[in-house]
Specification:
The complex is a heterodimer.
Chain A: E1 9-13, H1 20-36, E2 41-43, H2 46-51, H3 54-62, E3 64-69, H4 75-82, E4 86-92, H5 93-96, H6 113-139
Helix pairs in contact in A: 1-6
Chain B: E1 8-12, H1 19-35, E2 40-42, H2 45-49, H3 53-61, E3 64-68, H4 74-83, E4 88-91, H5 92-95, H6 112-136, E5 160-164, E6 167-171, H7 174-183, H8 193-203, H9 211-228
Parallel strand pairs in B: 1-2, 1-3, 3-4
Antiparallel strand pairs in B: 5-6
Helix pairs in contact in B: 1-6, 7-8, 8-9
The chains are: A alpha/beta, B alpha/beta.
């Protein structure tokens, strides 16, 4: 991970490869880090964290983390917690589908318009959390 | 699954920080869906590393190939840590001859550089799958997509059909192959038919004496594809 402000929020997806939910988690993360809140957020390789890489572990312990998991197994959330990370919010893609009954989001290889719509909704919710944290920090004495 | 019908597990790092992580992931999917459907499955690395016994047991009892984005080789490390030695360990940046500086992490920005990188890595993975199967599978036996044990991770990609000497011949992933050719500027005219044949031959066995007929049939199908697109 690049040098960051301690307040930079780490957005960490599961990137599960078997289903579309994992791809949505990944693309939602890039929407946040590259488009919606590029100055305030970064992502972190989950596999590197799970491997126990010292820099990755330090990063999740010293930055607020938001995880985006595809399924209820919540691999990203669990691994951030195991690493002693500072988890401020965990999001599940599968929950976002509850308001998109009948959606055809695509596959684990590519998203349809429905898939991108869901990814963007998740990204906007995550960004709102990031902005809220920044606002709290600025108000705090 | 018959013990003789060996499947190969492919585990990609899917590293989120770098474009090579995205390439590792999409190249793995390409092999599962198009290049070697039925002979390969994928394992979810975070789930595997988080301690899922089913995933770890598969890697213990089947040959596995890891596909890492960078030299840190997290997928290889995790697999060997929990399930023993891997059959092959590939690194995207090594296959591509260095970091893919023209590539992006998100598929929203995916372009020609990503397409070519994904194909290059996918073909290398497929070659490793063939090498592993040649070592582990008795002659004449191979896993097929119709053995009833496929999961969502390894479902074959819909293919296309061409007519060769009056016979309809299905070819897995034909639209994607045509898309790749179009992206590489293969012309939809007779001068492009040789290139079409060479690409399809990678994925579909073609008897030498039938190559001219395939060449003609592929060109006709490619011309239709280009018109439709």
């Amino acid at each position: 991970m690049m040098e960051t402000d301690k307040q930079t929020v780490l957005v960490i997806p599961c990137s599960g490869i078997g289903k579309v939910h994992g791809l949505i988690s990944r693309e939602a993360t890039y929407l946040v880090t590259d488009e919606l809140a590029p100055g305030q957020t970064q992502t972190q390789c989950l596999a590197l964290l799970v491997k126990g890489d010292a820099d990755a572990v330090t990063a999740v312990q010293s930055h607020p983390c938001i995880t985006i998991d595809g399924c209820p197994k919540a691999c990203a959330q669990k691994n951030v917690e195991i690493a002693g990370g500072t988890l401020v919010k965990s999001v599940r893609v599968v929950d976002a589908f509850k308001t998109h009954r009948g959606a055809e989001p695509g596959s684990a290889s590519g998203l349809t318009n429905d898939g991108w719509t869901i990814a963007r909704e998740i990204a906007e919710a995550v960004t709102a959390e990031v902005i809220s944290r920044i606002a709290d920090r600025e108000v705090a004495p | 699954m018959s013990e003789a019908m060996q499947k190969v597990g492919i585990i990609s790092c899917s590293g989120e920080e770098i474009p090579e992580g995205t390439i590792s992931r999409l190249a793995t999917r390409r092999v599962l869906e198009l290049l070697r459907p039925g002979a390969t499955v994928t394992l979810c690395l975070p789930l595997f590393l988080a301690g899922n016994e089913a995933e770890r047991d598969f890697a213990r009892t089947h040959p596995t190939i890891t596909v890492d984005g960078c030299e840190k080789q997290c997928a290889k490390w995790g697999t060997e840590q929990h399930s023993g030695p891997v059959s092959a360990a590939l690194v995207v940046s090594e296959i591509l001859g260095g970091p893919c500086s023209a590539c992006h992490r998100s598929s929203r920005e995916s372009g020609q550089a990503e397409k070519e990188a994904i194909w290059m890595v996918a073909e290398r993975i497929a070659a490793e799958v063939d090498a592993v199967l040649a070592q582990t599978t008795p002659a004449g036996m191979c896993a097929t997509a119709s053995d009833g044990e496929g999961c969502a991770c390894s479902s074959p990609m819909p293919g296309g059909t061409i007519t060769v000497n009056g016979t309809k011949v299905p070819i897995a992933g034909l639209p994607l192959i045509f898309e790749q050719c179009a992206g590489q500027g293969v012309p939809a005219e007779s001068s492009g038919s040789h290139d079409l044949l060479n690409v399809v031959k990678i994925y579909h066995p073609i008897p030498l004496d039938e190559e001219p007929a395939y060449q003609e049939a592929l060109l006709a199908a490619y011309q239709q594809f280009r018109r439709d697109v």
